[in-house]
Amino acid sequence: MNIRNSKYNNALIKYQQRINDAAVEDMVLNMGPQHPSTHGVLRLELITDGEIVKEVIPHIGYLHRCFEKHAESLTYQQTIPFTDRLDYLASMNNSHAWVMGVEKMLGIDKDIPKRIEYIRVLVCELNRIASHLIAIGTYGIDIGAFTPFLWCFRDREHIMGMLEWASGSRMLYNYIWVGGLFYDLPVGFEERCREFVDYFKPKMVELNQLLTDNQIFISRTANVGVLPMDVAINCGCSGPVLRGSGLKYDLRRIDNYSAYPELEFDIPVGKGLMGTVGDCWDRYKVRVDEIQESLKIVEQCLDRLQKELKRTPEFDPRAKLPRKLTPKVQDYYARCEGAKGELGFYFIHNNERSEIPFRSKVRGPSFNNLSVLPELGKGVMIADLIAIIGSLDFVLGEVDR
Amino acid sequence: MSFDDIKLLLTQKFGDDVITGEERTGMQPALLINPNHIVEVCLELRNNPKTYFDFLSCLTGVDYGEEAGRFGVVYHLSSIPYHLQLTLKISRENDRSEDNLPSFPSIVSVYRTADWHEREAYDLVGIFFEGHPDLRRILLPDDWEGYPLRKDYKAAEYYKGIKVD
């Protein structure tokens, strides 16, 4: 490889040396990029001694599209479809975070009508359920349980159908706009959503019987990949990974944004029921419990949307859209609880008349959660590494951006 | 603890030359820190029982444009026990040549989150972090030329002999 700038390449030379040295006595094993259990195009370079992983070196960037460069050349509104493509399993949460940041900068965050806030929370929570269903289903398939995967995808399909009905698209919605929404919910959405909740609740009981309390599943995940709380915080883990380590930390409660302060829900944390606090089973269980909590939120939103915040003919979800998205000169770091953890957008806006940020940076939860993998993967069996990867539940679209 | 209390705490501990200024224009005030002291400041903010900024939310490398000729790093700290947020900024004037990257101390020893974030800043903005354990490119290939998030970056016409449209 022809590499310039040798002054700054010491780390690269050191890394190549390490791989060459390891190849003499240990085995260097490439897992991915096209490996189903790496959940996308993630390449892990494993230095193994027999069946034991001595070191994990993740290589990311196969899906890199430079979102931040795009965001620097497009207006705030035009970037919303790009934010959908970050964590493409929970697009609503991404655009919600982006939109809230821009609204805060514009100073219009208090003027958003209640109905819009509740619709936003409703679709975000539906999307969170869909994202967690994928996490659970693919986690099952990673360690050999095929049926939960099909069940989860079957139930997720209902959510996809509903969100498609609302926004016109199955995965990448572009539904939440700065100051409002693309469209109001279609007539009959609330009823159909309630039907789904009633249908889905017993399915979760079935899923728990099939997977959560399954002895084989517990043996594969309990006491595996234990992530202590202090390491989790220091490595920047957030969301279900951090809560799996036993810390009750959820930005929906800490920051109290959008309609969340008016809604009742608990924050599930890992308790170490099957093994140690912070093991793979705990992280998995937190997601299962979060689905239940999200269902609670969905029901409360539906109650409000069908009673005091009812659809009226005059209601226009685009009424508050600002004509020009020109915030004052400022820096702002907006954060919210995405499906995978703390999703942050950092904006630098340096021109009063411009609609384009000078710099925007994404703090992706998957990126940070994945960076703990070399720590967790030290000294485990190769089969356990699969269980650890699945329990972190990252999306490569967000890791690589 | 308010922003001013934190500022007072830092000046009492390290003297006046650590904080070079502050920005209060936006909703989130920021402290401008002397780049040479950023590691001590972060360590103090993390370990002090009054602040406990134990979580590094975000680390951003910034190119302030060709006229300014400055490069900087922005840290967003958050304190889980006290629900506080704090923005720290360091910056330095530097030219734009590839043989002389702007260089800042690495804070990986304080927050391990910074590991990949600093690699990303090195990769995309071209900021070198002294003392980083493994500063390789992270998102782009190792033989990539240039730093895409710099304001003067021009996309290459060819990549490994293949025409880029």
Radius of gyration of chain B equals 17 Å
Which percent range describes the beta-strand content of chain B? 25-35%
Strand arrangement within the widest β-sheet of chain A reads: 1-2-3
- Ranges of chain A where pLDDT stays below 50 over 5 or more residues in a row are none
**SSE order of chain A, one letter for each helix or strand:** HEEEHHHHHEEHHHHHHEEEHHHH
Name the helix and strand elements of chain B from N-terminus to C-terminus, one letter apiece: HEEHEEEEHEEE
Strand content of chain A: 5-15%
Globular, elongated, flat, extended or rod-shaped: what is the shape of chain A?
globular
| Biggest sheet character of chain B | 5 strands, mixed
Query: Would you tell me which CATH topology of chain B applies?
Result: Beta Polymerase, domain 2
CATH topology of the largest domain in chain A: the name is Cytochrome-c3 Hydrogenase, chain B
In round numbers, the mean pLDDT of chain B is: 87
Question: How many helices of chain B does DSSP assign?
Answer: 3
Query: How many structural domains in the coordinates of chain B?
Result: 1
- Give the number of domains of chain A: 2
User: Which of globular, elongated, flat, extended, rod-shaped describes the shape of chain B?
Assistant: elongated
Q: Key terms for this structure?
A:
heterodimer; A: 401 residues; mainly alpha; Cytochrome-c3 Hydrogenase, chain B; 2 domains; three-stranded antiparallel sheet; 8 strands; B: 165 residues; alpha/beta; Beta Polymerase, domain 2; five-stranded mixed sheet; two-stranded parallel sheet; elongated
Q: Brief description of this entry?
A:
The complex is a heterodimer of chains A (401) and B (165). Chain A is mostly helical.
